[in-house]
Design a protein that fits this description.
Layout lengths: L2 H17 L8 H22 L2 H13 L1 H17 L8 H15 L18 H4 L16
């Protein structure tokens, strides 16, 4: 088969697969459209449960720490769906939620010191300074 024939077969097969639904799931354009729709739905829900000052603070957080902002957004949406929110979430309420998120995600810092043993010395307390004094012939083998 020549290249044009092979290319024509590929095009026909690709057209058949697309007509059958691709067999691979949604196309990238379809996935992008679904993501936009989900984002719009999430934004409209957040707009309905938050006042403008809280939304502004959340937008500032999103610029600095997007993962924390996503956690707060998901928390707020779930709380609204369960009916746990009474009225709109204000800036003070959002500060409280952010403090809770910060406690959960705070990295616990530990510092450990590893003392390295010097060659030939097993216990620093007993051997510290040994052989460093002048006139001390107890360590020298030149008898």
């Amino acid at each position: 088969m020549a290249d044009p024939e092979l290319e024509a077969l590929r095009q026909r097969r690709l057209a058949e697969l697309q007509a059958q639904g691709g067999g691979q799931g949604p196309s990238p354009e379809e996935m992008q459209r679904q993501r936009r729709e989900q984002e719009q739905a999430k934004n409209s829900m957040l707009a309905s449960i938050m006042d403008p000052s809280a939304r502004s603070r959340l937008a500032s957080l999103r610029a600095v720490k997007p993962e924390n902002a996503a956690m707060v957004e998901n928390y707020l949406i779930q709380a609204a769906q369960r009916g746990q929110l009474h009225g709109k979430v204000g800036e003070e309420d959002l500060k409280h939620i952010l403090a809770q998120v910060a406690e959960r995600t705070a990295a616990k810092t530990t510092i450990s010191f590893n003392r390295r043993q010097l060659a030939g010395f097993e216990d620093d307390d007993q051997d510290y300074g040994r052989g460093l004094r002048r006139g001390d012939d107890s360590d020298s083998d030149s008898d």
